[in-house]
Structures are given as structure tokens and as C-alpha cells.
Hints:
Blueprint: H1 16-27, E1 34-38, H2 44-54, E2 58-61, H3 78-83, E3 92-95, E4 99-101, H4 108-112, E5 114-115, H5 117-123, E6 128-129, H6 132-136, E7 139-144, H7 151-163, E8 165-170, E9 173-178, E10 181-187, H8 196-201, E11 204-208, H9 214-229, H10 231-255, H11 263-275, H12 282-297, H13 305-316, H14 334-348, H15 354-367
Parallel strand pairs: 1-10, 1-11, 4-7, 7-10
Antiparallel strand pairs: 2-3, 5-6, 8-9
Amino acid sequence: MRHTTVYPFTAIVGQERMKRALILNAVNPSIGGVLIRGEKGTAKSTAARALAVLLPEIDVVENSPFNDDPTRPDTWSDYVRANHGILDTPASHKRRTPLVDLPVSATEDRVVGTLDIEKAIKSGEKHFEPGILASANRGILYVDEVNLLDDHIVDLLLDSAAMGINVVEREGISFSHPAKFILVGTMNPEEGELRPQLLDRFALSVEISGIKDVDDRMAILERHISFDEAPKQFLKEWVQHEEALSNKISGAQKIVDSIKYTARDLYMVANLTSSFAVDGHRADLVILKAARANAAYEGRKRINDHDILVAAELALGHRMKRDPFSDAVLGEGDVEARLEDIADQWDQEGEGGEDSQSSKDDSKKKMT
């Protein structure tokens, strides 16, 4: 973990659901990003920037503007492929996990990059000017006021995040490079909404508001005053908390792909999304990925109902508003109650064995 003057992630008061959504994406970036919706002054951008500090340094191919991974030749950009055979081991160095801001005024060329067609025609050289997606590869792409972006730009971001690659084609010439990043979008709903189709493309979503508890508000004041007046001293006081969380995320990253799940877990997820009439299957995949990430983060080798609950509450909220004239939202405890009903249904149908029952018992303890 590197030391910076960014406000510490662990010093953020409250907003536990927002912090968990960000952490799960850090553990497994393939989850698909997070949309944070809330009023101004609720630590949305602070949390996104602080997350980058917690992430480990990455190995990148020397002189690559695309943060190519030297150990993954199957993902290399056309630039690295042209300069190194796929059997070569290119020189590499470590660098910080990037955090890239996308301005609201960004154009398509600024986002995806541009090909110099004239140079390609005249000299036969393929010259590509990298864009924001290149800089964000293997890092965090932060979009403030994502609801004010052109829908076409949002589509580009979400497509790249889903595919993990950016392909630019002009006049029969193409260039590709890896574009795997954690997409973090923030917005104030009072300034306009995203289209439902775009909302669904964000894997997780969190609704946050200002903290009402007086003691917590005092803690926010005290910490921010201390940070403003003596940032180095403040960071020193929080460094152990930051390093502990950074190590916990790093450890979870190493085991997340080995986290096990059962047929019962899949039944729970599928039945849950079906019972809430969620369109498509994206939510099912997101819940499973996020549940595995949560289990890895909490140090377990397999998922349980608690992990599914955490993931579902983050994955379903923004997928419930399907009618622009409807106020249908998930109420407090709705997902947990539905999960308990589904677990009972599984047992009554005689599908659950000893393994499934132990998972249920363990998870019920977590949810109480």
C-alpha cells in the first residue's frame, strides 16, 4: 500500500454498504463496477479515490501506455504484440494502481483513443493515440456525475468494462488493447437519472444519504478538521487500519476464484431474482460473483446465505425501478425475508442435504 495525502478509506464514517460495494469490486473487478447515488457531501468521490490507495502495485510491460500485464500475453495490446513476440518475456516495472477521472465533457475519441489514418495510409504504420480507457486499464475509472454524460459515452464505458478490451476501427484499420478496470460512477439523482438500460449495466448500486446520528456527524467533523490541519499526522494515525484493509483485500483477491458454491446456492440466487421479476440474467451472475467476493473477503472457502444476502442487496435495488411512474423499491429486510422463504422451500422440496443445511444454519447466525 502506498502513502499519499488522500483521505483514508478506513476513516470514512458510516456508509458501510457503499464501502462494501467498492471493496467487493476491488476483490473481483469482473463483478462489473458500482454506481453510487446520493446527495452532495456524502463521501462518494472520497471513497472512490481512497480505494485506489488500498490496491497493490501492479507489474506492467516497460514503456507500455496500456498497463499491459507481462504475465498475460493473451491480453496484450497490439502495441506490445508488435514489439515483443508472445513467447518473449518483456522487461517490466511496478507502478501504482491507476485512478483515472473521466470528465463529463469527454468525447468518444478522448475515451477510446484515435488512429492516425493518414500515417497508416502513407507509411503503412499503425499509429494509435491512447485514450482514457488505456490509462484506466487494470485500475479504477472514476466518473463523477455519470448521469450527465452522453448516453453513448456511458455505453462505451460499460461495453469496455464488460468485455475487458477496447477495439478502435477506422477505415478498415483496427487497434486493440486491454481495458479491464473497476468502473465507479457517482451521481446526484436530483440532477437527472440514468436510463433504466444503463442502470442495469452497472453491476452494483448503492443509495446513500447524509448521516443523521449526532455522534457520527461529530466524528466526521473532527476527522476532517484533523485531516485538513495536519494531514501527515492524521494519515499516520490511520496507517495501520489502511494496511490491514489493504492486506485483507489482497488476500481475498488471491482466493476469490477458488471460492466454492453448491446447487443450493445457485437455486437461492435464481429463485431470488425470479421472485423479484428481474429482467435478464445479468443480476444472477452479479450476485454469484459478488457473493464469492464477499466470502473471500470474510475469509471463507465457500459462500453461504449471508454472502448471497450482501450481494443481492447491492445488485437488486437499482433493478427494481422498471416503471418510470412507479416508486417500487426494495424495503428494509425484503431480500432477507425472501431468502429465508426460498431456503425453506428448498428444504421442503427435499433438495437440501447435510451440506446445504449447515450452510443455512451458518448463514442465519450471520444475518441475526
